[in-house]
Design a protein that fits this description.
This protein is mostly helical. Helices cover about 65% and strands about 0% of the residues. It has two domains: about 160 residues, no CATH class; about 210 residues, no CATH class.
């Protein structure tokens, strides 16, 4: 029996309580994201002509695709994980897993019931089962990845060696993980976060020319590369590890972009996003990022905020790209699970720079005024 086995579920350290609060906040935010994606589009509400829970006793769908099943399962894995992580402070691990799985399944049932009131959506008991399975898988992973679990102990030890301590750094690492998820946006250029033009029907301020498009793509990638790289560098404890960690995060983002384009959206090739402008932005940004990562932490935080703000301005002022097309899978008639998945990815891509900017401002202020 280890020392951690004697700790009561209600008597946890302040650091564990801080992680639990962060998990509750993230679980609530992810729940809102699931609701947003599940009820798209929000128009054409009507009273169903049949019993509301009729879909639970209806026949199984005639056509079941592997893509829809996997996306339904994957969509609820983070929710189950976060709920189990938050509940583990007050409950034992098995009970926390069970309660988290039930809460995730209840949300899935509520979303399918609400879809019965939407003319453009079809409620399905298969979606309820796959959502519940995803919540269960995520909840079961929480004890393993917690600091007391076998893989979690090593992960926590590595995190303590490499990154600064505290809940603030945990929040920063979550923001970096969300940045990796923004690369699942199918129609965005590389590092194209914060593009609000289509959401708010903003007109293009500049007319398209090949030279201007190249310069705009280079500027967007350049500023985002510096902003994300300096954000990651501000989280690293050991300066000798800064460059390898930053390079690893950037390389992971590029790999996610390449894999998502090929596996999810049938892109012509894994590097179809690598235009001359993108290549120029990556090269110039990498050259300047190396010396800037050695600046004081406050300087890195401020420069990261400036670069991310400049990137948002650049992408919203850039001319429209006439060569950018919507993947065929998202053009098909009807709302598929992949379409809803792309809606989540687009919302995350649009909001991420503002979330990161808020974190950088808070980190800079608390660094200057520790009280």
């Amino acid at each position: 029996m280890t020392a951690t086995d004697n700790i009561s579920p209600v008597a946890r350290s302040p650091s564990e309580s801080g992680r639990a609060r962060l998990a509750w906040i993230l679980a609530l935010a992810y729940t809102l994201l699931v609701v947003y994606a599940s009820l798209q589009p929000f128009g054409e509400w009507r009273r169903p002509s049949y019993e509301i829970l009729h879909f639970l006793s209806a026949p199984w769908p005639r056509y079941i695709t592997l893509d829809d099943v996997l996306i339904n399962v994957a969509a609820y894995i983070p929710l189950g994980f976060l709920l189990a992580l938050a509940l583990s402070v007050r409950l034992t691990a098995p009970v926390a897993v069970l309660v988290a799985a039930l809460l995730a399944a209840a949300l899935g049932l509520a979303m399918e019931t609400a879809q019965a009131f939407l003319a453009t959506r079809i409620a399905s008991k298969l979606d309820v089962l796959t959502n519940g399975a995803g919540g269960l898988f995520g909840a079961m992973a929480a004890p393993l990845l917690s600091p007391t679990g076998f893989p979690g102990r090593r992960l926590a030890a590595w995190r303590a060696r490499v990154f600064n301590s505290g809940t603030a750094t945990d929040s920063g690492l979550i923001i970096v993980c969300l940045w990796l998820a923004t690369h699942l946006h199918p129609t965005a250029q590389l590092f194209g976060m914060g593009n609000l033009r289509h959401t708010f029907a903003l007109p293009a301020r500049l007319a398209h020319t090949p030279q201007l498009l190249l310069s705009a793509e280079a500027a967007i990638v350049f500023f985002n590369l510096l902003g994300v790289g300096l954000l990651v560098a501000a989280l690293v404890r050991d300066s000798r590890r800064t460059i390898p960690i930053v390079a690893g995060v950037i390389a992971t983002g590029l790999a996610v972009k390449a894999a998502a384009g090929v596996t999810l959206f049938d892109a012509p090739g894994p590097l179809s996003w690598l235009t001359p402008g993108v290549g120029l932005g990556l090269a110039t940004g990498a050259v300047l990022l190396y010396p800037l990562t050695r600046a004081p932490r406050m300087v890195r935080l401020v420069l990261a905020l400036i670069c991310l703000a400049a990137a948002v301005v650049a992408i919203n002022a850039a001319p429209d790209n006439p060569y950018q097309t919507v993947p065929p899978k998202l053009v098909a008639a009807g709302a598929t699970q992949l379409l809803r998945f792309s809606t989540i990815a687009r919302a995350l891509s649009e909001l991420w720079p503002f979330l990161a900017a808020g974190y950088l401002i808070v980190a800079a202020v608390t660094r200057r005024h520790p009280r």
